[in-house]
Design goal:
four-stranded antiparallel sheet
Length: 329
């Protein structure tokens, strides 16, 4: 199912009488997310020039407001995502001074569809330096097969050694799944929720390390030198725990999308490339973890679809809602 939302109420048809203000109007809704069972949607809604969290219950063709947050100038909603059919994750950010220029502090809150039972996902622990963790909203995996947990990345003991932690979205109790390793700054999972890859850097070198599905040891699959022009990034696993989807510029100098087989340590088939620009985004089919669509930017955002039904739905709605900005959610 493809659900689309018009992100602006302003008609952008070129017209001599169109006021300048119409082109500067903020989108009414942004970052809309639908609950896994389709009963609720949450979005950042513009109220008096400020985006605030809003949640609706979907009742056929009608909507019922179940929650609306308070607007504030200094605390903003960064992103939102459903962790279960009735529990929403909300990332909040605020500018804060730590003895120098302002930096962004983040927090992650879980709440019910009506705003009840809010809970910070990281308890007010202190780092070894005596200060609260600055970044507290790094989610590695939303675990769609586990409605009670997510996997987050943080280490209150040593912020230089990222840990992967399974966190209960109801009470914030956590369990370390992967301990911190020197110079590893990012962890990733496969579709079964296992910690399978890490990204590291030291001095002017970066690398990706992989743990095979049947082995506890880690091995490097690729590395590069900053400024050398080589690019490689992991965008997720397929349903096969030995096959990843990656972006790489090793063939054309532009980031293209490939399968990468960990059993053979080699690139598989090319999924999509563009001769002039990088591929910038992948949308997954979450039923079977295949690539549904990729995006690239030339004079605007363009899509290459691999799901003909979803593509037809998108094109039909785009045609019906002419001159509106659409986002697939």
């Amino acid at each position: 199912l493809v659900i689309l939302l018009s992100l602006t109420y302003a008609n952008t048809l070129a017209h001599a009488q169109t006021p300048v203000e119409a082109f500067a109007r903020m989108p009414k809704f942004a970052d809309l997310v639908v609950s896994p069972d389709g009963k609720y949607f949450a979005a950042k809604m513009e109220l008096e020039g400020i985006y605030t969290l809003t949640i609706f219950e979907i009742l056929g063709n009608d909507l019922k407001l179940t929650y609306q947050g308070k607007t504030t100038d200094d605390i903003g909603v960064r992103w939102i995502e459903w962790a279960s059919p009735t529990r929403l994750l909300v990332s909040l950010g605020k500018a804060y001074r730590r003895g120098g220029p302002p930096v962004t502090e983040t927090r992650l809150i879980a709440m019910n569809y009506d705003g009840s039972n809010p809970k910070s996902m990281i308890s007010p622990k202190k780092t070894s330096g005596g200060m609260a963790l600055q970044i507290q909203d790094r989610v590695i995996d939303f675990l769609p097969h586990d409605p009670d947990h997510i996997i987050m990345e943080y280490n209150e003991d040593n912020i230089a050694k990222a840990r992967a932690n399974r966190v209960n979205i109801h009470n914030a109790r956590d369990k370390v799944l992967q301990g911190g390793k020197s110079d590893i700054y990012e962890w990733g999972t496969d579709r079964q929720g296992n910690i399978r890859w890490g990204w590291g850097r030291k001095d002017n070198t970066w690398w990706y390390t992989i743990r095979d599905v049947d082995n506890k040891n880690w091995r490097t699959i690729t590395e590069g030198i900053w400024g050398s022009g080589k690019e490689f990034s992991i965008w997720g696993f397929t349903s096969n725990p030995n096959v990843m989807i990656v972006a790489s510029n090793h063939e054309t100098g532009k980031n293209a999308i490939y399968e990468y087989n960990l059993s053979t340590n080699s690139f598989g088939r090319e999924i999509f490339s563009h001769p002039s620009v990088d591929v910038s985004h992948v949308m997954w089919n979450k039923k079977n973890w295949t690539v549904r669509r990729v995006a690239y930017t030339i004079d605007g955002t363009h899509y290459k679809w691999f799901d003909p039904v979803a593509e037809a739905d998108y094109n039909n709605i785009q045609k019906a809602l002419q001159n509106q900005s659409l986002s697939v959610v």
